Amino acid sequence: MPLSPNPFCMKGIKMKQRLTQLTLLLLVTILILTGCTPANQATPTDAIEAPETTLPEEELTEEATGPAGRFTIQADADLPPALTVLYAACFPDELPVFVDAEADLLVTTATQDDAFSLSYLPATFLPDTVLIPQSDSFDAAYFIAFAVSPAGQQVLIDIGALPPTVTLTDQAGNTVEIDQPVRRVISTYGPATAIVYSVDAESRLASASYLGARDELGAAAMERIDPRFQDLIGDDNFSQDDFNLEEAANLDPDLIITSARTAWLDTVGELEIPFFLYDAETPERLKEAVLLTGQLFGPNSTAQAEAWVNYYDWVYASILEQTQDLPEEERPRVLFTGTAPTRVASGDMYQTSLIEIAGGISASAELTGYWNDVNLEQIAAWDPDVIIVPPYGGATVGAITENPDWQILDAVQAGRVYQMPKLVVPWDTPAPDSVLGIIWLTQRLFPDVVTLDCAEQAQYFYYTYYDYPISADEIDTICAVD
Amino acid sequence: MTPSALSTDPTQSFKRTITGVTLVALPVVLFMLALMLGRYPIGPVDVGKALLSPLFPDLAADIPDVARQLVLRIRLPRALAALLIGASFGGTGTAFQAIFKNPLVDSNILGVTSGAGFGAALALLLLRDTWQVQLFAFAFGLLAVFLAFFGSRLYKSTPLLILTLMGILIGSLFGSLTAMLKYLADPLDTLPAITFWLLGSLTAITWQKLSALAIITIVGLVFLWLVRWRLNILSLGDDEAKALGVNPARMKLWIIICSTLITSAAVSVSGVIGWVGLVIPHAGRILVGPDHKRLMPASIALGAAFMILIDNIARTLLPGEVPLGVLTGLIGVPILILLLRRNRTGW
Predict the structure, then answer these.
(1) What is the pTM of this model?
(2) How far is CA A298 from the centre of its chain?
């Protein structure tokens, strides 16, 4: 099958011809990228940024190694055929150069990395097979970005290395068959959008509804995380209650992701666009949601999702190890309040799991359903040791601590009323960020017992799962212990 | 039979005494119960000690401070608020049914509740402070009735009918405006607050709010109490009233102003609680007959008793607050059907 030229490869040709005009070339490339068909929006952002930092060195390497190849590849035994096709699709009519050692690019079986240290996860272009750059070669970085892009995925599907469709069961129990690769997604559900970002598939979003991005700080952080944020934000057209069919058709999506508790599912069924439903109110369901999202977007996102689940499990195990021997009477009773002080989380909600994982006891676990309105007397009867207010809906610590009636509670007297942090997504919602909510809450409940550090882990989390180097100021604000 | 004919019968007279004592005792007993019931277990003796503790601080030395504070700061104002709100619904419902000569109206007929609901929703959407919510609800409740009243002045014929019609129209207008606000509200945040308010609850009551409610309600109810015999005349018709030396138009205006003030004050604290003002006067008629001299106090007592009964259930049935608007119908309708079965009476 003839392969149409794509922006990655056109860029490569021009580069070879005009090595001396690199700055001009970069401008041309950006023009081409922005002027092309929608699929080209899927270019990973780090691939666009790559030339600025690596070009001068690449110039030197090319001169030193000569015209034999753009970069060398060291690959495991069965991989060269697939790599050759992929290479030819990226750099038309060119062949890769395979070597046995000291290659620019290492292609090998993925190994489980449980260090959770500050690093990008390697690009996984086939299941359990990763591309690891060994030098600063720009073309190698470009090839890696191409290999995990929808275009690269399409090449691998065409040669049968990846399946043309995936069949998944969503969290409402529907079996959905989805054509691969998924290029244009509408997410109408904030937690689902957060999951898409954390499995490194945000470039596939055509429109998204965000959690926590409506306030100034959240929107500012979101703009730093994703330059496309302002163009993607779709809350006016798509939400759990509303779905603007005309706007959706304009965006030409090939997948819609939303909550299982969505009001408009019947109408959208008419569009014959597959949709995928989320319902993650427990840690297990959240892990499932992240893994399923990974599988929607291919091997790289799957690997990213698995890495997150490993991280979540590791955090859980670390905390459990340190708190499991605490006797019942040393475990604080924690009350999780909502947008009003007397609106509290029920036992069915993710917030209850959060408290339990952190080693506390949920004061309002006997309630069922969603948020419950209770009275102060009921809260006094529960007698919580700690009260958590959420970072949304105008809830503040002051609304509780400055209310004279609430002074009857020991938690208020002792000053143990805290606000759950957030960067964009509130840390108490069933989204990947909630792993930090667990760590933060554990630190609040057992400052002398637990060794996991909110600041350290937030830095790792945002760097690895949002590709966002969070600033020291942001961390200080978020993890502040007052 | 006229009321005076009834009173000559000794068995009737005895019955009336029993009914009177029951009507006075019912709210008092339920009020005492309200102070003892709650999700936080406090024994009756401790409740008594807590109540007396502002006068004799030594008494409360052996009970936990939480219990004392709960009784004084939470249960007492809430029980008093339930009494006042129920009384004002019962009283205004009786007054409106008399002056409109219609047993199917209550003080909401002129749109006060719809207006208050809109005001509260607006404040919840824009301001969020509980004091402002109460103020907005009160102000918009009055505004709705004001609009209905002056709207009806545009027409010269059969003012009562036009007034009823304008009340219904203004009520629907504010209903639509409230629906629009609910549509605009954030579904995760302000919408639940608006919905909860519209269903009615006394959770947020404080001494501060109670004081404003108490002043307006007590003054208003005293006025209705004093004019109760005139309701008999007004319910006969305008010509008869004039013949008996009462200016019907002016009297009605005063009763509407007074009823609207206290209904608006009640609704601004409790949220939308329909139904009570409509039905309590019927229960009153079943028990004491149609004479407003006796019906007005009976309705006030029954309304107070019913409201505090409902609120006791709302507070204690489940860990979560059950909205009052849900319970009034669920509990009130069976009670009323039972009363209707046992008695027959004209309105």
Answers:
(1) 0.78
(2) 14
More confident residue, B272 or A64: B272
Report d(CA B110, CA B90) in Å as an integer.
16
Q: What is the pLDDT of residues A289-299, one digit of tens each?
A: 999 999 999 99
First vs last C-alpha separation in chain A: 63
**The pLDDT of residue A28:** 43
pLDDT tens column, A21-62 = 444 444 444 444 444 333 333 344 443 333 333 334 444 444
Alpha helices in A36-76 (DSSP H): 45-65
Q: How many CB atoms lie within 10 A of CB A158?
A: 14
Q: What is the pLDDT of residue B296?
A: 93
Cβ B39–A381 below 8 Å, yes or no?
yes
* Tens-place pLDDT, residues B216-265: 999 999 999 999 888 888 888 778 888 888 788 888 888 988 998 999 99
pLDDT recorded at residue A481: 63
Domain ranges of chain A: 7-158, 165-306, 326-478
Tell me if B292 sits within 8 A of B345, measured CB to CB.
Answer: no
Q: Where does the pLDDT of residue A166 fall: very low under 50, low under 70, confident under 90, or very high at 90 and above?
A: very high
Residues of A contacting chain B (CB within 8 angstroms): 239-241, 339-340, 342-343, 364, 366-367, 371-378, 380-381, 383, 392-394, 404-405, 407-409
Q: Which ipTM did the prediction report? A: 0.76
CA distance A77 to chain B (A): 54
By the 10 Å C-beta count (0-12 exposed, 13-18 middle, 19+ buried), A81 is classed as exposed
Report CB contact under 8 Å: A373, B196.
yes
Which residues, including other chains, have CB under 8 Å from residue A477's CB and lie 6 or more apart? Answer: none
Domains along chain B with CATH numbers:
30-342 (1.10.3470.10)
Chain A residues with beta carbon closer than 8 angstroms to that of B203: 342, 373, 375-376
Residue with tokens 């545009």: B154
Q: Which architecture characterizes domain A165-306 according to CATH?
A: 3-Layer(aba) Sandwich (3.40)
The DSSP annotation for A304-355 comes to HHHHHHHHHHHHHHHHHHHHTTS-GGGSPEEEEB-SSTTEE--TTSHHHHHH
Cβ of B41 within 8 Å of Cβ of A381? The answer is yes
**Contact status, residue A139 vs residue A71, Cβ threshold 8 Å:** yes
* Closest-approach residue (CA) in chain A for B70: A377
Q: Report the topology of domain A326-478.
A: Rossmann fold (3.40.50)
Residue of B205, B318, B326 for testing the chain A interface, max A β-carbons within 10 Å: B318
Which amino acid is residue A406, in one-letter code? W
Cis omega before residue A181 (within 30°)? Answer: yes
**Of the segments A227-231, B154-158, B238-242, which one has the largest average pLDDT value?**
A227-231
pLDDT digit string (tens) for A424-468? Answer: 899 998 999 999 999 999 988 988 877 888 888 998 999 989 989
